[in-house]
Structure formats: structure tokens, C-alpha cells
Design a protein that fits this description.
alpha/beta; 23% strand; 158 residues; 7 strands; seven-stranded mixed sheet; Glutaredoxin; globular; 2 domains
Length: 158
């Protein structure tokens, strides 16, 4: 009888441990522990600041300095209307420009049916483009494989 009780206790403990491990793995996304691969020019200082923003938010960043960032944009179908200074890939999504880490996390959590997110251009006050207290309003744009665009998040009032 004692052996049976010990066996049942071990099964319960191992089941709880497995359940906890699954919860931890699922929770890691909300903590931002996700791999993101960034392609950027060697001469762009703001890109390094955006990478620091991502790292501070828990992303695991692979920094690829490339001579031809436009070639990466072409490879992933980033149009000139969406283009910025760097392009990133995360879980099959494209992230173009200075998209805030929180918006990336929301996209991943919601498993949005889009190709990616973009903050076109170089807007003062976006992550990596901070200039003192200056902050311009900006919008994060979602785009799909058909070229459809929509406002994903309006940061005009942040």
C-alpha cells in the first residue's frame, strides 16, 4: 500500500511539474522572450538604440549588419511605402522600422493574420529615435500578403 501511495504521489508531482513547465513556456511570450532577427546597415545609429529597446523588453536579438538592407526588404516584400532603416523577422512576421516592443508582443500574442508591422520612415520619438522630450505622433501599420494596409496602433496620444 505504501508503494502505491508513493507511486501516486510521484505521478501527481510529475504531472504538476509538466503543467507548470507548459505554463512557463506559454508565459515566456508575454515576457517577451522571443527570438528576433534584425537586418540593418552598419552606419545606422538609431537601429542600435531600437535593438537596445527590444533587449530591455526581453527579446533575444540577433543583430545582422548587412551592406544591402534594401535586398532584405525586397526578399521579404517590404514596399517603399512601408520602408524604414531596418527590417526584422520574428516567428514568421516582418517588423519594419521602429515598431514598439509592446506592439510586437501584441501581434505575437494575438497571432494576427498579417504579414507584419511597420513604422514607415524615421519618426522622432519612436523607440530608437528618441531626441530628448521631442515626440511626434505616429502609427504602426499592419500589412498583409495582398498589400492591404491598416492602422494597427495609433501612438498619436502617447
Amino acid at each position: 500500500m505504501l508503494k502505491q501511495l508513493i507511486f501516486i504521489a510521484l505521478l501527481l508531482v510529475s504531472g504538476i511539474s509538466a503543467s507548470y513547465a507548459q505554463d512557463e513556456k506559454a508565459g515566456s511570450l508575454s515576457k517577451g522572450n522571443t527570438d528576433i532577427v534584425v537586418y540593418r546597415s552598419p552606419t545606422c545609429a538609431c537601429c542600435g538604440k531600437w535593438l537596445a529597446h527590444l533587449k530591455a523588453d526581453g527579446f533575444n536579438v540577433t543583430d545582422n549588419i548587412v551592406a544591402n538592407v534594401q535586398g532584405i526588404k525586397d526578399q521579404y516584400g517590404v514596399t517603399s511605402s512601408l520602408a524604414s532603416c531596418h527590417t526584422a523577422i520574428i516567428n514568421g512576421y516582418i517588423v519594419e522600422g521602429h515598431v514598439p516592443a509592446g506592439d510586437i508582443k501584441t501581434m505575437l500574442k494575438n497571432k494576427d493574420n498579417i504579414k507584419g508591422l511597420a513604422v514607415p520612415g524615421m519618426i522622432v520619438g519612436t523607440p530608437g529615435m528618441e531626441m530628448g522630450g521631442q515626440k511626434s505622433p505616429f502609427k504602426v501599420i499592419a500589412f498583409d500578403a495582398n498589400g492591404q494596409l491598416r492602422v494597427y496602433k495609433d501612438h498619436s496620444k502617447d
